[in-house]
Amino acid sequence: MITAQELTKRYGDRTVVTDLSFTVRPGTVTGFLGPNGSGKSTTLRMILGLVAPTRGHATVSGRSYAAHPAPLTEVGALLEARSVHPGRTARHHLRALAHTHGIPGSRVEHVLARTGLTEVAHRRVKGFSLGMGQRLGIAAALLGDPAVLVLDEPVNGLDPEGVLWIRTLLKSLAAEGRTILVSSHLMSETALTADHLIVIGRGRLLADTTVADFVRRSGAGTVKVVTPDAAALAGLLTGPGVTLATDAPGSLTVRGADVEHIGRTAAAHGIPLYELTPSTASLEEAFMHLTHDTVEYTATAEGAAA
Fold it and tell me: How would residue 107 be classed by pLDDT, with cut points 50, 70 and 90?
């Protein structure tokens, strides 16, 4: 289990993370999402003891990362996959890690096989592709057979087969009862992999819930309505948090009101409905809807920064 309690980090007069509290529980894949500059990387580094919080604290399996006598056997982490001596082979790199952490050498061959690197384990890391480097980083994270995994962008550089492999791997590790925290920019992949989401913006917690609940509560979904009296219905539905668009004569797209509310309103005023179809938002749409006020920059349609 990973627990963050009121984590705050300041650099001079700039606050990067503010009073961030959450719990990552065993047996689930938890996606850690946020726009660029939201404080995700800083938070991960505070959890792993690489950055000291200004206030608050984080624990992994009940103690700080630094307090674990053999951290690699408790917590596996992937932050920068290329932070490996380029002159070493993959096998040499993993053997060195195993030796310094008291991990049996047999684990080296096990993780090489599990990450698909056995056939290239004799090659020097400087010749590895980005995807191969990611696999080596994941192999290092798995080396100590840890109960907790913290992975930053694990599918970066992987081909479609590799993306499917990491998705299957993370789900199987969670099914074994391990705690999995995964940061990613790929919403479509997160939707397929994660069970739970922690979403931050400008260093503050925005959501801590299941993927399904996050999408449902985001307000990003829409309802298509076809009626011969669209203008009257639009007037009745107009209110705080409700937006309406006219796609064609007699057709409305409603955001911010559910099917039940629209149906009851139409029935109460004798307005016939020919179609009433909800459209569930994707995780990406829900994420963009929630975080649009927390991004550090946006771009115009022409691509100019705004």
Answer: very high
Give me the residue spans of the domains in the chain: 2-210, 222-279
pLDDT tens-digit readout, 30-63: 999 999 889 999 999 999 999 999 999 999 999 9
Helix/strand/coil for 28:
coil
In sequence order, what DSSP letters do the residues of 75-119 get, joined into one string? EEEES-TT-S-TTSBHHHHHHHHHHHTT--THHHHHHHHHTT-GG
* CATH H superfamily, domain 2-210: P-loop containing nucleotide triphosphate hydrolases (3.40.50.300)
> In which band, very low, low, confident or very high, does the pLDDT at 306 lie, cut at 50, 70 and 90?
very low
Q: What is the DSSP string of 41-76?
A: HHHHHHHTTSS--SEEEEEETTB-GGG-SSHHHHEE
Q: Distance between CA atoms of 46 and 42, rounded to whole angstroms?
A: 6
In the chain, % of residues over pLDDT 70 = 95
- The single-letter DSSP state of residue 177 is T
Place of tokens 């939707």: 191
Of 64, 60, 142, which is closest to residue 98 (Cα–Cα)? Answer: 142
Residue 198: beta bridge partners?
32, 208
CATH class of 222-279: alpha beta
The sign of the torsion formed by the CA atoms of 73, 78, 79, 80 equals positive
Element (H, E) at 36: none
Give tens-digit pLDDT for 61-72. 999 999 998 889
Q: Which of 138, 132, 215 is nearest to 182 (CA)?
A: 138
- Backbone conformation region of residue 252, classed left if phi is above 0, alpha if psi is from -120 to 50, else beta: beta
